[in-house]
């Protein structure tokens, strides 16, 4: 009985030494998924127990543990004797700082800025007094989904089927795609009747297209650290309207073709008349016995039929000269003097 009492007294005497002098107010190990470029606060608040009466000050160390890093521990930030020290070699010294100006006042939390994928790892906070308290935060940095592209495949005609497609070219896997109709009270993933998931993750198939399907659709691409969206406006065209457009286009094309044909015929006629005038002027020169020394400036073919007579006239640049005219009567060619000009 005496031995049992002595053991109890010894245990009571050692109890103060068994109590933790430093205690971190956090709920176990934290796991965080963060987006590249974001900032984050890694918490590490602590309290000192009354039993810790030692003269030494509080020491704080932040350590980064990554699978790629071997060798000594990477202490990238520390606090001792009211001095803050930054480590080297981790790439964090320009992007990390204590949240409090004096972390010795019961808060060893830090803030990381401009997170990079290479910052992924386990971050360990150690607070030292007579004993050591440790808190760990597992950080995974990933890229948000890149802005997706939205487009349609198929004719936007009432009664047909159309495929809405969405694809994001960047972002950490896994990527989740969700379509929603934003108009007419739809939202939160709701879709009209007649829509179903396509073969690809970002596909939405609409069968028997009708007016109820017309509107604005939004594709939302998400992963663990963020999301991105794109939108597409789905409008319908009537079959009759399409046929009318084809008919109008055919008529306009035919009119254009006829206009070009008319221009070609007119050009051929003008060319023929020009040659005929040149031939007539040549006949006029021959009829004067070769006395014409100047070329005809204007050669006009006047066709009229007074008493069945056709008259051709050559005009010359000099009004004093006379030419000969050809007058046809009943198919007989006669040479007569030209009238005064």
UniProtKB/TrEMBL annotation:
SUPFAM superfamilies named in the record: Immunoglobulin
Q: Which residues form the Ig-like domain?
A: 16-140, 145-237
What is this protein's name? V-set and immunoglobulin domain containing 8
Q: Does the keyword Membrane apply?
A: yes
Signal peptide range: 1-21
Q: Does the keyword Zinc-finger apply?
A: no
Keyword list (alphabetical) reads:
Membrane, Signal, Transmembrane, Transmembrane helix
InterPro entries for the chain? Ig-like_dom, Ig-like_dom_sf, Ig-like_fold, Ig_sub, Ig_sub2, Ig_V-set, V-set/Ig_domain
> What Gene3D superfamilies does the entry give?
Immunoglobulins
Which spans are transmembrane here? 246-269
Q: What Pfam family is a match, any one?
A: V-set
């Amino acid at each position: 009985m005496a031995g049992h009492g002595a053991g109890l007294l010894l245990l009571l005497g050692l109890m103060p030494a068994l109590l933790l002098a430093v205690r971190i107010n956090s709920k176990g190990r934290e796991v965080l998924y963060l987006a590249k470029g974001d900032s984050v606060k890694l918490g590490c608040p602590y309290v000192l127990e009354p039993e810790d009466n030692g003269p030494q000050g509080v020491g704080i160390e932040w350590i980064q543990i990554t699978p790629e890093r071997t060798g000594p521990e990477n202490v990238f930030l520390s606090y001792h004797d009211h001095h803050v020290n930054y480590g080297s070699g981790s790439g964090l010294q320009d992007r990390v700082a204590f949240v409090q100006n004096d972390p010795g006042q019961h808060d060893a939390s830090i803030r990381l800025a401009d997170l990079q994928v290479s910052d992924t790892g386990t971050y360990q906070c150690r607070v030292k007094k007579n004993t050591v308290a440790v808190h760990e935060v597992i950080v995974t940095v990933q890229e948000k989904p890149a802005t997706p592209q939205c487009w349609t495949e198929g004719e936007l005609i009432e009664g047909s089927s159309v495929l809405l497609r969405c694809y994001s070219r960047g972002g950490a896997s896994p990527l989740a795609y969700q379509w929603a109709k934003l108009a007419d009270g739809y939202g939160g993933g709701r879709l009209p009747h007649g829509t179903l998931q396509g073969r690809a993750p970002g596909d939405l198939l609409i069968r028997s297209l009708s007016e109820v399907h017309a509107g604005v659709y939004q594709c939302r691409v998400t992963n663990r650290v963020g999301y991105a969206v794109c939108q597409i406006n789905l409008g319908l065209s009537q079959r009759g309207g399409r046929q009318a457009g084809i008919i109008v286009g055919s008529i306009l094309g035919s009119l254009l073709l006829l206009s070009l044909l008319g221009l070609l015929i007119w050009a051929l006629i003008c060319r023929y008349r020009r040659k005929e005038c040149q031939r007539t002027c040549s006949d006029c020169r021959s009829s004067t016995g070769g006395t014409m020394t100047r070329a005809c400036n204007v050669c006009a073919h006047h066709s009229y039929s007074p008493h069945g007579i056709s008259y051709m006239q050559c005009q010359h640049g000099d009004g004093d000269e006379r030419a000969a005219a050809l007058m046809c009567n009943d198919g007989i060619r006669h040479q007569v003097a030209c009238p005064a000009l």
